[in-house]
């Protein structure tokens, strides 16, 4: 009875809702967008407003930008997902993004958390967010990821992070 969309545009989501309304079908209940401090623009400008208007849940994927927001690539790409997928590396691993991630260190230190936890807590604190898909591959990563639940994102921290990661 429940279905959702993934990576749809606001236009596609709106059209799906109109068709469902017109023919009496079940409407999509959730959108699964890519969303992180690195990938904000499409979601915040296009998807979030219509999903909120239509009462859809939001379940984001890649909240750590394939590991970039953890800081593991501060000194280059030697291992991990970015070392295995050149197209992905080319799209997010830029000197500007690496510098932005390094700037997160200060905020994370002030909150007594890791950059991983800060990035996950930030995504989870955004309006309309229902859930955040984690990509942990080891128990230690899952334990660290779950520590994000203890990080409080205040309006000031949100503003500071959005200033660092502006689009």
Secondary-structure blueprint:
Blueprint: E1 4-6, H1 10-23, E2 30-32, H2 41-53, E3 57-60, H3 81-84, H4 86-92, H5 95-111, H6 115-124, E4 129-132, H7 139-146, H8 155-164
Parallel strand pairs: 1-2, 2-3, 3-4
Tell me about this structure.
This protein is of the alpha/beta class. Helices cover 50% and strands 8% of the residues. The chain is built from 8 helices and 4 strands. Strands 1-2-3-4 form a 4-stranded parallel beta sheet. The longest helix has 17 residues, at 95-111. The model has no long low-confidence stretch (mean pLDDT 94).
Give, in spatial order, the strands making up the sheet with the most strands.
Answer: 1-2-3-4
Shape descriptor: globular
Strands, count = 4
The overall pLDDT average reads 94
Please estimate the helix content: 40-55%
Report the sheet-strand fraction: 5-15%
What is the multimeric organization of the chains shown? single chain
Secondary-structure-based class equals: alpha/beta
Distance between the termini: 37 Å
- Low-confidence runs of at least 5 consecutive residues: none
Question: Which features does this protein show?
Answer:
single chain; alpha/beta; four-stranded parallel β-sheet; 8 helices
Short précis:
The chain contains 8 helices and 4 strands. The protein has 167 residues and is α/β, with parallel strands linked by helices. The longest helix is centred in the middle third of the chain and has 17 residues.
């Amino acid at each position: 009875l429940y279905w959702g969309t993934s990576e749809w545009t606001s236009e596609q989501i709106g059209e799906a809702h109109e068709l469902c309304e017109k023919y009496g079908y079940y409407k999509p209940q959730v959108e699964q967008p890519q969303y992180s401090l690195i990938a904000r623009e499409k979601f915040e400008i296009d998807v979030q407003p219509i999903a909120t208007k239509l009462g859809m849940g939001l379940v984001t994927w890649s909240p750590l930008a394939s590991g970039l927001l953890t800081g593991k690539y501060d000194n280059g790409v030697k291992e991990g997902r970015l070392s295995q997928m050149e197209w992905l590396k080319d799209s997010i691993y830029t000197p500007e993004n690496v510098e932005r991630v390094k700037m997160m260190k200060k905020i994370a230190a002030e909150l007594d958390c890791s950059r991983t936890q800060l990035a996950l807590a930030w995504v989870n604190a955004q309006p309309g967010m229902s859930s955040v898909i984690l990509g942990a591959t080891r128990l230690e990563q899952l334990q660290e990821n779950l520590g994000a639940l203890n990080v409080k994102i205040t309006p000031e921290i949100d503003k500071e992070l959005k200033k660092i990661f502006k689009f």
